[in-house]
């Protein structure tokens, strides 16, 4: 169950990271509320996952999921560059996440 909590914590991290763009410096109320709610849920789920998982592994995977998801959505939603080198680096992060899961 801890791994499920961790994956959802990572997904909510993507939500708040992307949500920050939509808050326009916290000047838009609805995106701000949704972003803050996503932050709270993400940290709460991470806390639940940490009951059974090593903190270094869980934190690295949580941030990895957030990093990859935010980078991919940045390319898709905001037209950020999708260069071969950038995609290769995202692939390295994914391989690190998989590796940590396999050894944990």
TrEMBL record:
Molecular-function annotations in GO: transmembrane transporter activity
What is the recorded membrane topology of this protein?
Multi-pass membrane protein
Enumerate the UniProt keywords alphabetically.
Cell membrane, Membrane, Transmembrane, Transmembrane helix, Transport
Q: Which Pfam families match?
A: Multi_Drug_Res (PF00893)
Q: Which SUPFAM superfamilies match?
A: Multidrug resistance efflux transporter EmrE (SSF103481)
The transmembrane residues are 33-50, 57-78, 84-103
Q: Which GO terms describe its cellular component?
A: plasma membrane
Q: Which InterPro entries match?
A: EmrE-like (IPR037185), Small_drug/metabolite_transptr (IPR000390), Small_multidrug_res (IPR045324)
Where in or outside the cell is it found? Cell membrane
Q: What is its main location?
A: membrane
Which GO terms of type biological process are on file?
A: xenobiotic detoxification by transmembrane export across the plasma membrane
Q: Which family does it belong to?
A: Belongs to the drug/metabolite transporter (DMT) superfamily. Small multidrug resistance (SMR) (TC 2.A.7.1) family. Gdx/SugE subfamily.
The protein's name is: Guanidinium exporter
Give the gene name: sugE
């Amino acid at each position: 169950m801890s791994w499920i909590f961790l994956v959802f914590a990572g997904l909510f991290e993507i939500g708040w990271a992307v949500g920050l763009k939509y808050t326009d410096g916290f000047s838009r109320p609805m995106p701000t509320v949704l972003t803050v709610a996503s932050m709270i849920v993400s940290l709460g789920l991470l806390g639940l996952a940490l009951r059974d998982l090593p903190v270094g592994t869980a934190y690295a995977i949580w941030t990895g999921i957030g990093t990859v998801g935010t980078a991919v959505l940045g390319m898709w939603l905001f037209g950020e560059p999708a260069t071969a080198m950038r995609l290769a680096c995202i692939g390295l992060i994914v391989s690190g996440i998989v590796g940590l899961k396999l050894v944990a």
